[in-house]
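ok so I'm stuck.
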Amino acid sequence: MYNYTEYDRDFLKSRVAEFRDQTERRLSGELDEEEYKQLRLRNGLYLQRQAYMLRVAIPYGMLSSVQMKKLAHIARVYDKGYGHITTRQNIQYNWPELEQVPDILAELADVDMHAIQTSGNCIRNTTTDPLAGAIGDEVDDPRPWCELIRQWSTLHPEFNWLPRKFKIAVTGALSDRAAIQVHDIGLRLVRNEAGASGFEVLVGGGLGRTPYIGQVIHEFLPTQHLLTYLAAILRVYNLEGRRDNLYKARIKILVNALGIDTFREKVDQQWARSRDTDDTFTAEQFSALKAQFPTAPLLGTLQTTVELDNGSHKGPDQMFSNPLFNQWYQTNTRPHRDSGRRIVYLSLKAPGVPAGDITADQMDKVAELAERFSESEIRSTHEQNLVLAHVPVDDLFKLWSELKAVRLATPNLGKLTDMIVCPGLDYCSLANAGTLEIHDQIYQRFDDLDYLHELGDVSIKISGCMNACGHHHVGDIGILGVDKGGVEWYQLTIGGHAGNKAALGQRLGKAIAKSDVADAIGHLLEAYIAVREPEESFHDTVMRLGTTPFKEKVYATAA
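replied:
not stuck anymore, here's the structure
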């Protein structure tokens, strides 16, 4: 991962000192809340329903074990003993005291971390595939490109006050695990016929009140032009994006209003004037940056072979002797590009725990396990889980045993209870309805792991308002909380998808009562089981049949 220089560290220290002065002036009354608001937002500090919330940046989801230990310390000393992994791969603390926030930022700076641009109308944390550099289906590793974008976009003088927040996602793999089609800009590393690397560039994606799937603006952008082309897109947005209406300020609204062809023409005009500006980099500079993301040392070919239903497979021999371990192995691990290693997902979706929450003790344990089993490296995911990307296959059983002891080995990755859930009405000042109770209601109803595995991969994503922080638009089953006369109701969508087949879910029908949500999910699953073809996913079934058989089952039963 990227190693900070002394210049980087000096900058962070000066930034902390600056914010400490601003906070002291707020506490003394020299600054009122409105004057302080933009200052705190630029440092990741929100005022939520019950307390301040601090959002800490985890650039492209990468953490060292040292950084994870520091996050555990902050949770234990300055918060209520836990943190929350977000869909931007960051971590949030929900209960910091205002006067202690500068101290938290100072402690973060000690381990090369900060909260800069985790809020505000600027370029937010660039996200990527949590399996980058470890998975075998990569065209190229996207992480150095994410770091390049991070360095370029941090406090960029032209793009630090955009019409609205701006999100970029990058993938280098054949399978999109970064949801690039629902971002303001999505970047996919590709190769042309000559074998040269470039980017397919998408623009205008996003969820929220007006959801759109991103459109291709450039089919093959040579990598050396990345920053100047991004600048051209942002310049058009900055100049022509709406600032008169908060709900129409995102770039997706501008792209849709102009049409992708007209928007492309405007970008090309800007780019023609600026492609040789200071937003360039040399091959030598990028090579030096790329060298900071080495691949894990090869362990060679694993010799242990087990026989599975679909043929032989190299894996730990405990797969035969321990069915619980085998279930976890099949569900929560993925092939590594090195056959001697395995990628391991740590589920933050145990029973009775809010989705994405992790305690200080668990953070310390994850840091310890990363040091012992995964090159001291940890990844966060936009599905609100963690990843140890480089685990030796021979250590998997021991790792599983230790994860199980701290409730991080629930074998539900991709299954129904692996829900994405925003904080909802319990925390967020924007929410219209609760989400945590809905999460618990569904989890309690569908707690049979055997049933979940027979069902296959089905995603549920829950948002407490139209801002869609829970990504409900792109869930197999999306749940949106709405307020009707002070009463919480829930709208259902089905058939959404965030990967290669990105699609927005279709609204099922009228909103349902809070007490009926789990029953409605049960009826949807009954309908799916009844009409699906062999090996057909929930999304593909909806695409084939539409909403009718699902709607009939849910509302006929309710009537």
